[in-house]
Structure formats: C-alpha cells, structure tokens
Amino acid sequence: MDFTESFKMAAKTLAANKLRSSLTMLGIIIGNASVIAMVGLGEGAQQFINGQLQSLGPNVLFIIPGSRETRELGGLEVPRNLVVADAEAIATQVPSVKAVAPENSTQGVVSYRNRNTNSTIVGTTEDFLTVRSFEVEKGRFLTPLDQRRNSLVVVLGNQLAERLFEGEAALGKQVRIRGITFDVVGVLEQKGSSLGLNYDDSVMIPITTLASRIVGRTSPYGIEVSFISVSANSQESMDTAEFQITNLLRLRHGGDDFFINSQDTLLEIADTVTGALTLMLAAIASISLVVGGIGIMNIMLVSVRERTQEIGLRKAIGASQQDILVQFLIEAIILSALGGLIGTALGASSILVISVLSPFEAGVSTSAVLVAVGVSGGIGLFFGVVPARQAARLDPIVALRSA
C-alpha cells in the first residue's frame, strides 16, 4: 500500500471518531498555545523594557551614590554623598561630557484650587531636557537663574497638568506644593514612564528650591541628589566619559562610594533577565506538549485494542507489518500536527489580546511557531511508535479469534 492510500485511510479513521480525536488533540493544542503565548509575552516584556531604557536618552550614563555592593544588599541605608557640586565638577572638568543633570525627588501633594493629587516632585537643572531627551510643549523649562534664586517655579508633566487644570491653560496659573505656592512656567510633552518614574505625572522644580523649601539639606556635603544623569558627546566616547568621571569622583570623594551604569549595561541586564524569563516560561509551557504526547500514545493504544479485528482482517488479505505501522504513525502525526496548528492559532489570538490589554507590544514569534509545531509533530511521531509497533506485530489469526 502506498503512502497516499495509508494517509487517506488514517484520515477516514480519525474522522469516524471525531470526539476521541478531538480529546486526543487537546493536550497538544493547549501545549502549543501555551508555548507561543508565553514566548510572545516574554518577547513583549523584553521590547517594553528596552523601549523604557531607550527613552532615557541617547549616550546616557547614570551615576548612583553608594557602592554597587551596598545597593545590592538592600536593607542598608544608602550614603548621601552624591551632591550637586559633583555634577557641576563633571560638567566643567570632563571634556567628553555634553550635559549633566542631577536629580532628586520626593512625594507630595500638588493642589490647584480644590483639586489635590499626590505626585512625584523632581528637583533638577536646566540640562535635564538635553540629557533625557525631553521636550517642552508649552512655556519654558527651568533656567540657571531659577537655580541661583531658588525660584518658586514649576514645570508640569503632561498628564498632571491635564488632571489638575482639566482643559484650562496651565501657564501663568499657580499650584501649591506642601503649602508653598509655585508659578507654572511650562508643561512637558508626553513621553511616558521610565524605570518606574512617570515624568508625565510629575512636577519639575529647581533642585536648589527642592533642597531649601521642600526636603531641606539632608547631606553634610551639599545639596543631595538621588543620581546624576550624564550625556556623553557620542556613543564612541561613553567609555572615555565613564573613565574620566570615575577618576574625578574618586579624587573628590576619596574612594569608590558611587558606581556608574550605562544605558548599554542596563540593556544587557534587561536582555539577560527577560531572555531567561522567556526561556523559563517556554519550558514550563512545553510540559503541556509532553503531556499531550502521552495522551496520544494512550489513546492510540486503546485504539489498537478496539481495532484488533480490523487489523487482523487487513493482515489476512495481505497487508504487511509496514502498512499497519505506517497507518498508525500517520494517525498519530495527523493528530499532533492538527493540534499544533489549532494551538498556534489560539496562541496567536491570545498574544493579540495581551497586546491590547497590557503595555507589552507582544508579537507572534515565527521561531516559536515553527519550534512548537515541529515539536508537536515530533512528539506525535515519538509517542505514536509504541502503539503503531504493537498494532503491526499483531498475529492475524490471534487478532481474528479475539475479535
């Protein structure tokens, strides 16, 4: 019997037992859908995090107070040793740096008339726009004069301005922060959150004003900062800038009580973490494929017992062991391949739902689809061998007597 005839016979047999065939495919369907959805979710998370890091600005270095080991230990208090004077020294003494923006932040209630909202209050300098690639939508940003005078001026994030003023023009109005009145001089363009801080829902004030009127001076060395963002002259000069900044701060601080993260370093860490997460999710989902393969083998073994008479008759009229073996293998492969295709469709549909309901731009991974369908077909072939061999080895006389 040729392959085409065996395929037709296998397809007719499966079609005659629709319920059993459907239940047999269920494990493969769930397995394929899970693998594709989990891989798509992992890749979506990776793209989302990379987008967040790219939004930090081009060629950016982040100088963070405390040693890396101190940060990793968690419960220890981070030293307050990084100050505005360090940022000013970097800006004037490091030639490979284009702009420097120190930042410090706290939480507080921002009020306009009878509208109150809790927001992040960010103290920074005029170079924030350059370093972090932000744009002003209306009005202006903070100026060096604002810093020198400790001016009570504020630039609002886009979402915060919309929530406080509800369509009114924000420029020229006054808001209150912790009981202090500030003049609104600008509104930022919407950009989204980065590294857990949503600047669209924040207020920006001069860092000198933050220190003198909001949080006070908490460091004995000067005006404390949470971190310093530095923009290098180019991508090629980032290593040079990091080296020069490290040497300068070592001289100023007398040791390594700080560490520097580059955008590339953060991207590498994010790729490693999300890649491992994607692999783990895919491995967990793959267990369903193995369970589905075992289900195929069990059902096929039951099918061999139920079709003993059919096998005996076919052998009695001349069917060879190979014919019987090929037919049962084809049945197993059809079940797993069809289940794989249905599972792929369900997995792709679930990814579209995820991309709509979450911030992840999840996409269907072609490699995940090919691997899932290929693995499901291989599983069908692997787990179909045992029942197929058992059917092929049945003695026709014994089969006809037991029927």
UniProtKB/TrEMBL annotation:
It comes from the Bacteria. Residues 283-396 form the ABC3 transporter permease C-terminal domain. Pfam families: FtsX, MacB_PCD. One of its GO terms (cellular component) is plasma membrane. Residues 21-247 form the MacB-like periplasmic core domain. It is a multi-pass membrane protein. It is found in: Cell membrane. InterPro entries: ABC3_permease_C, MacB_PCD, Macrolide_Exporter_MacB. The chain crosses the membrane at residues 21-42, 279-304, 324-357, 363-386. GO terms for molecular function: transmembrane transporter activity. Keywords: Cell membrane, Membrane, Transmembrane, Transmembrane helix. Belongs to the ABC-4 integral membrane protein family. This is ABC transporter permease. It comes from Vasconcelosia minhoensis LEGE 07310. The lineage of its organism: Bacteria, Bacillati, Cyanobacteriota, Cyanophyceae, Nodosilineales.
